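Hi Y.,

Following your request, here is the sequence exactly as I used it, all 85 residues.
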Amino acid sequence: MEQKQTKAWWQFGYVWFIMAGPILVVIASFITAYLAITNPDPPIEDYYRKGIEINKTLDAERDGLVPAVQGRNHAATGLKPAESD
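Below is the corresponding structure, written out as tokens. Let me know if you'd prefer a different format.
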């Protein structure tokens, strides 16, 4: 009887080709974790007060806008349109 010489699993190229993708993902995740730990994002200081200031600025810009008919009347008569709030 003739016996076949069988190779070990690591001697087949396709095995390494199939394992290359998951191995690269694991290595990339370790690199990402290292970068996240060594370079943390700085905390945002007093974000609530800054948000309130932004809202006030946006409200002030919107207060200058009036409907077109009132704006035309203001331009013709010189009278400031009344607040509609």
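The helical segments are 13-38, 47-63, 68-77.

Thanks again,
Q.
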